[in-house]
Amino acid sequence: MMHRKVVLRVVSKFLIPPILLFALYVQFHGDFGPGGGFQAGVIFGSGFILYAILFGVDMAKRVLPPWSTRLLLVVGVLTYGLTGVAGLLLGGNYLDYNVLAHDPLHGQHYGILIVELGVGITVAAAMITIFNVFAGQTGGD
Amino acid sequence: MLMMGAVGLAIARIRDLFAVSMLSGIFSLIGAAAYVVLDAVDVAFTEAAVGAGISTVLMLGTLALTTRKEKMGGGKSKSTAAFLVVAVTGAVLVYGTFDMPRYGDKIAAIHHHVVPRYIEKSGEEVGMPNIVTSVLASYRGYDTLGEVFVIFTAATGVLAILGRARRRREDEEADEGRSGTKEIAS
Amino acid sequence: MQGIVDAFQPLYDLWLSFEAFMVGPASPGLLGYWIVIGLMMTGFYIVIAHDNLVKKIVGLNVFQVSVFLFYILMAKVSGGTAPILAEGISVYSNPLPHVLILTAIVVGVATTALGLALVVRIRNAYNTIEDDEILAVEEEEDR
Asked: Residue C37 and residue C21: Cα distance in Å, rounded?
């Protein structure tokens, strides 16, 4: 089956890097235009899912093994939660970003950036995990 | 939005589940267009990425694991009863809309309370042009934390429900002398 | 680039006339809500009238999207723009429903995935995804 999808595979090889790059752009440009962690996570996840569909789940698992996506899932949630704890330790309220830097505005910037990163990691990891589980059922054909 | 209605009706009628999952992708895409014209660009972005991409893929994955065709039948009386229930509920809801604020109304209750502060002050307090991002991550940080946990839990749940069955199958394959994995990888 | 923008002009004009109708004197300004209700009832009908579990989940999705649309409709302010701060603009749409729905969409897909996983598991256990056949198998086992 695989050798008949040459065109799709070549085109997707061109497409996947821009998709991942665009996801990162959406992630870090969310402060200024539409975008943010949720969208970026979904786009990043769909980049990997496209790869998995065209090259087989086993190849995709070699790029990003299942344990790593599960780890990322936890890392994303913890990034968000611990940012709140960091605010707590620095003398503010939970999830209060004003204390993260000397200037409240900068603190807000850092806080939102880190929190959005946590959201993005969680969403991307969740999407890839869910897809892997579904696709793994059939044996990746 | 009228197009969304038409696609929704098509989803209700068509019994080929493959066509239904494709139609639900189209449905989300039209929905995204509707969000753009209603000035909700962030939401449109999300809907386009999620609805047209991931959920269609998941739907097709499920169909590959189950069946493609919906069984015929279900009974005439059942669908008539269902239609009656739906019609009555819909009529009640339409009656309820007569007290709703009109479309695009500036003085609707929803636009007061905390929202003016988000719009006027977020530029100084958070310093980000995109109000949606500052509300999402800063003013409503707890909300978003909760949502992230829901996503985390859903992914964990999927792993708990299906991950185990797959591992058992992999073990069986390993018992058979690791046949089959090589050819897939090539 | 301008050519592409111009190509969408008729579509945009169509929307503008629809919007004018929605707020104008010809309609009571509730048309959007009625479309939402129509969609919601479509989803509701799919959920209660169909036995197929995948179809039920699609129905729930339709229902969900109708609720999203309802929130976004309420957030719209006449003459407002997207809630991104810019020079010279003073009227913005309400950002709060946008935030709620933005997260709800992603949560929605995650929970849909959970539901589909349950469907797959049910299929593994009962070898069918039709509601009535599952009940028949259950009764068979009880006997």
From this structure: 18
